[in-house]
Amino acid sequence: MVNALFFIYSWFLFAPLMLAATLLFGLLCFLLMPFLGPRRVARLTAVPWSRLGLMLSGVQVRLHGTEHLDPKQSYVIVANHLSQYDIWVLYGHLDKDFRWVMKHELRKVPVIGFSCALLGHIFIDRRDSRAAMASLETAKARLVDGTSILFFPEGTRSRDGELRPFKKGAFRMAQDLGLPLLPVTLTGTREVLPPDTLRLHPGPVALTVHAPVTVDGDDEAALEAALGRCRSAIAGVATEGCLELT
Question: What positions does the domain Phospholipid/glycerol acyltransferase occupy (predicted)?
Fold first, then answer.
């Protein structure tokens, strides 16, 4: 009975409310951008939009390890990817200005794609490696005064919840720029919105921030070592996610 009522709520209240909120915050983003920088506009639009979506979904976010965040430090953030809800959790509760590296196809999503472009997020066309590299080169200039960049190094959502192999792009950027990596683990978001379904399941999720990892050297071995340390940190919580949510 409870599941049936929440299903009705999801389609007849949550969906229309979030559609209206998306249009409202998208318009606000467009109107404010000429007067305020991306950082302030994101705090006034994307952050409350994300928190509203989580609240209306019945999702409670539990934070761990936020003492590892330095507000003045720019990072290359690497996080596991389980669900479309990952972005709401990160945007709403990772207290950090960041630019998200996302698939080029998302630029075509009405309102959201346009707003992300205004806020300076990075669209990557995986079919065109030269254009992808040019996009990342442009992003480097934005990583100042605590502004960070966020990668999902698995490249796509995990369908089964298992951590996939990491691609090297994020780690190479950290190496090239001399920036610390910030590993982040998300747990519980796959249960809120499982793959290949639009049926929501309210419940707790956790966001765990790990100690920063530096790339100690300019060779491939140093890059691989940093990748391994980040993946081990993320996997250590991801495989024990049930403990983080209790």
Answer: 75-189
Q: Give the CB-side neighbour count of residue 127, counting CA atoms within 13 A.
A: 2
What does the block give as tokens for 76?
Answer: 């290359």
3-class DSSP assignment, residue 132: helix
DSSP 213: B
Domain borders along the chain are 59-244
Per-residue tokens: 147:
């502004």
Q: Which residue has the tokens 């720029």?
A: 177
Determine contact, residues 143/179, Cβ cutoff 8 Å: yes
Q: What's the pTM?
A: 0.90
pLDDT band of 239, cuts 50, 70, 90: low
Torsion of CA 222, 162, 190, 107, to 10 degrees: 50
Give the highest mean pLDDT range of 114-123, 155-164, 227-236: 227-236
User: For residue 108, with 0-12 CB atoms within 10 Å meaning exposed, 13-18 middle and 19 or more buried, which class applies?
Assistant: exposed
Question: Over the stretch 19-47, which tens digit does the pLDDT of each residue have?
Answer: 999 999 999 999 999 999 899 999 999 99
Query: Per CATH, which fold does 59-244 belong to?
Result: Glycerol-3-phosphate (1)-acyltransferase (3.40.1130)
